[in-house]
Design goal:
Structural class: mainly alpha
Mean pLDDT: 93
Largest sheet: 2 strands, parallel
Helix content: 55-70%
Distance between the termini: 21 Å
Low-confidence stretches: none
Amino acid sequence: MGLVALEAQACGLPVVYQPIPGLSDTLATTGLATDFTNPAALAQDLNRLHSTPGLLPALQAAGRTNAARYPLTATAAALNDLGKQLA
């Protein structure tokens, strides 16, 4: 699910992520998807984050809104329920 990414978004940090199942579903367009296995693509995306006017504040605002969709109390309860099901 990407709790670390959601915590970063809740703190107002832009999230650059590898688009994999789970993260892609949780973050979608509220983060900046990139290919960490391709240094040129990563450099290009980081440069875009730095040089595109309005992109950084847009990702920060979208990230805060996205993180609010996943309250930690609900996540903790869901993990607790999952643990009981597996026991």
